[in-house]
Amino acid sequence: MSDEELVSIWLRPERVERSGPGRRPGYSREQITRVAVRMADTEGLEAATMRRIAGELGTGAMSLYRYVPKRDDLFDLMIDTVMGEIDLPEKPSGDWRADLSLVADQTRAAGLRHSWLIGLLNGRPILGPNLLRVHEFALRALDGLGLGIDEMSGFVGMVNDYVHSAIRREIGWLEEARRTGLDPERWKRDYIGPYVRQVVESGAYPLFSRSVLESATAHLAPAAHFQNGLDRVLNGIGAQITGARDGSGRR
Q: Can you list the domains of the chain with their CATH numbers?
């Protein structure tokens, strides 16, 4: 990779071109990114190529590389555009649980609207302005509790890991139901249900069988199931915050 290719899209100045008589029409990163997001939403991430985007805009693919030099840059811009949909107040409320829950719920909503988002986020060190805004809000929710920055960052990471995993699992259920042509509840009941009953009746997996027959959370609606798992993560963070305070003379 050349030195030029190593330059982050966030360090590259936005190219501004004016259209007019005898000039080719100008474009913008936002315009290009919006088209890419729409294509990814409707046809899958693989459809969002510079060639397809250029066709949508009525120009040649090479002309768009002046605005977005490489595909990874396009992905970064797409992620940050979607993160811009997360609607947060200007500052946290002072209730860290409520604030982190708000971030989690908004992220889940964005992830379900754009099913490609979580897979693209996975492992990518994205530092776009909208993602930084969300991350800063989450850190500020924990600020003032006597925690060090490593603890605060670690707790925000724990919430993000849960949220991303939960969204990925929920999307997986939805995609499997879509593949089979069944709604999620019917998929569970009619498609996988007979096999699960056979497993339970075999007696070979007693603890799994208990989770099927006795679990109250396994049969919750998706939003309630998500909140149940999130509450457990937040309870764990709360216990560690309390322990940190108690172990250091209530910092």
A: 9-82 (1.10.10.60), 87-246 (1.10.357.10)
